[in-house]
Write a structure and sequence with these properties.
Elements lengths: L5 E3 L6 E9 L1 H5 L8 E12 L3 E15 L6 E16 L9 E4 L5 E3 L1 H10 L14 H10 L15 H4 L6
Amino acid sequence: MKNQFEIPFVGLKIGIHNFEFKIDKSFFEAMPYSIVNDGDIKVWMELEKKETMLIADFEFFGTVKMECARCTEEMDVEVEGELTIYFTFGNEDTEDENIFVIPHESYQIDVKQSIYEMITMSIPFHPSHEEDECDEEMVKLIEKFQNQPKEENKNDDDIDPRWSVLKNLN
């Protein structure tokens, strides 16, 4: 079975070539340790083939299913973004995360990992429902068991006597 994310560039002419990918649940299931459960995303890639390099411009838009950071119920999170990756031919490594060095004998590039990273980097740090959309029962449970702030007015009697001597060091 052909992997749609492996792009054979050897047969491509010099110039621009367009590709479109549909990202769904099977994509995220195939990624080990994925933070995303499911999704419906369209990815467009414009691949420019040059004599000495390939330039891949990605653009994507869609939704991913994740747990709400507040109530843990599944929710849709909108994602969108752009990314440019450069593929150069050679044998030396590079520190730039947007430049991939591929051996001269290569005939294809695999963009699956780049697409996954691009999508996950666009997810908000704490995806959550609007406050009135969260599961009310879960919010009540969280409030009930959430750590209560300690009393500000602690008695000096509550301090361990081994440490009370330190108060007089000023």
